Amino acid sequence: MSERSVRAYVTGRVQQVGYRQSCSQMARSLGLVGWVRNLMDGRVEVFAQGESDAVDQLVGWLWGGPALAVVTGVESDVVAADRTLRDFFIHPDPMKIG
């Protein structure tokens, strides 16, 4: 079994539509660990790691998101793993950019 970690940035109408909660539920259902958070510039940032096929499924899901989301783009890159993570969680506060 091959594992992978990705960081993704999701653009569009992705805040105030349940995106983080839905993403967390999807990631957990796929057996992934990581986190999701809003960014001050209106994007959502996702860090996910686990089995490669499950990571691919989550990245595919990011393009649709929950019903009220309107996703206009997803940028994702393979990144180094964070072996300290044991769950998938939602960051409570937006991260400032810049």
Please tell me about this protein's structure.
The structure is a single chain. This protein is an alpha+beta fold and 98 residues long. The chain is 22% helix and 38% strand. It contains 2 helices and 5 strands, in the order βαββαββ. The chain has helices spanning 19-29, 52-62, and strands spanning 3-13, 33-38, 44-51, 70-78, 88-90. Strands 4-1-3-2-5 form a 5-stranded mixed β-sheet, with helices on one face. The termini are far apart.
Explain briefly what this protein structure is.
By secondary structure, this protein is of the alpha+beta class. It is 22% helix and 38% strand.
Q: What labels describe this entry?
A:
5 strands, 98 residues, alpha+beta
